[in-house]
Amino acid sequence: MPNPQPHGHRSLPRSRRFTYGVGHVLNDLCASMWFSYLLVYFHKVVNFSNVLAGQLLMVGQVSDALCTPFVGYESDRTRSGCGYGRRKIWHLVGSVCVACSFPFIFNLCISCSKSPDWAQFIYYVPFVVIFQFGWASTQISHLALIPDLASSPSLRVELNAIRYAFTVLANVAVYAIAWLLLGLEDRSNHHDLSPEDADEFRNLAFIVIGIGLFFSFIFHMGTTEPLRPHRAESVTEEQPNVQEDEENEPIIKKKLKRRKMTWKCWLKEVQFYQVALLYMCTRLMVNMSQVYMPLYLTDTLNLDKAYIATIPLVTYLSGFLSSFAMKAVNKAVGRKMTFFLGVMCVLFACDWMWVPNIGLQVYGAAVLLGVGGSTVLVTSLSMTADLIGENLDSGAFVYGAMSFTDKLSNGLAVTLVQTLHPCSDTNTMCKQAPCDPSQSVCCDACQSYYQQVMVFVPGGVGLLALLVLATLICKPIGIKTEFISERQMDNSAEHVPVEYGAIRSTPHMNDTDNSEVSLTTCDA
């Protein structure tokens, strides 16, 4: 088993890039099932009402939202993870929790499948909470490894692209297996989802866990976490800083001190909130379209149940192919323009789905959703890594805070959508018209509802993302660092800002100074 190595110049061989990339596959497989099939499974297979199914998803999202800052904070405080690595130890704990809890979620209530809905709801809640804690632990520790492993912005983009490529492959695997389980059955009179499909979802959950654990094993065996000492409130780096006086004589300033960013420091940074809002919009666009695509296909377009596997499969295949061009596009036009192009793809897809009865044209909209979703997700993660910059000691907290906004907003959005559903009370009672039990939807209002959700939710959030992006155009992304000399510090002289992320310049210093101090803008 690889041991942590000293932290220094970080260049990764291709093998370690691969082993890092597969470290989130277990999470990705489970997240694909969670977002794509949780609502449709509990509503059409377990027979929960729309509201109750949405509340279960809300419990999971709130649990994840509360766990992510906690995991990020504790991960940053962890010294060495018992010699295993402070990020990897949290990843291991999370993987175990996910593997032990997830199969129970997509399985009928053991010994209580005939109980009232509220009793079954209580049964599922503990497994959902444990799963979300494990998922958060794995996600935050894996993301926090990117700044630890990669010192250059281009390598961080590449690691994010590799990570997302495996995310797409994981989703492709889930949908392909679901298509085999649901679409290739010899049931000529069973085209809609029903309680008869419970075994297929259970088998899919077990297959997902098995594949995910295999790739988690590869990650832990092949990824070496750089060893970073637990630092005090400020860090002194023994490196010379050479300048020349008026007579061109060298002046060596031997100590460069940097005060580390704490969670209190981050909360004082405006850009922290801008990037968090951008990341939240990104996740809302991707996740809400993923959650409601199966219901849009079955209830609005009246397609066969096999399409809830094939259409998302096309979405993620297109996202996977586009991820290969992400590094080149970022380099050519920059982070912000790349994000803009991704949002425009999502908006075009929403406009396409507004057309009534598009039938199999939904494949075209699915391609645009895949390309746009892949682009904005990879770019927003790269922006988050740029925001962290060299502040690696608090990187996990930043990712945890970003994920907090993501999970909470998604849970609230799903709960609101399910509550506003025309048939939100039960699956057999409609507010606006009598229900026909032989139909997959109750009334015309129900049939068009998920079309409106797929158009206005991702589309509206995409417009909000463009507004947030506009506030970031004038400044590079990264936390500003200020340099002051000891004499300036004694005289309360004015600070000179010189650093944004990885872009650094040398400040003008008084030639009589013989030392230099680097401090962050935080006074904590």
UniProtKB/TrEMBL annotation:
Keywords for this protein: Membrane, Transmembrane, Transmembrane helix
TM stretches of this protein: 20-42, 89-106, 121-140, 161-184, 204-222, 306-325, 337-355, 361-381, 453-473
SUPFAM superfamilies in the cross-refs: MFS general substrate transporter
GO MF, one annotated term: symporter activity
InterPro entries cross-referenced by the UniProt entry: MFS_2, MFS_trans_sf
A GO BP entry: pigment metabolic process involved in pigmentation
Pfam families per the UniProt record, alphabetical: MFS_2
GO cellular component: plasma membrane
Keyword field contains Metal-binding: no
PANTHER family from the UniProt entry: MAJOR FACILITATOR SUPERFAMILY DOMAIN-CONTAINING PROTEIN (PTHR11328), MAJOR FACILITATOR SUPERFAMILY DOMAIN-CONTAINING PROTEIN 12 (PTHR11328:SF28)
Family: Belongs to the major facilitator superfamily.
Protein name: Major facilitator superfamily domain-containing protein 12-like isoform X1
Species annotation: Branchiostoma belcheri (Amphioxus)
UniProt gene name: LOC109462425
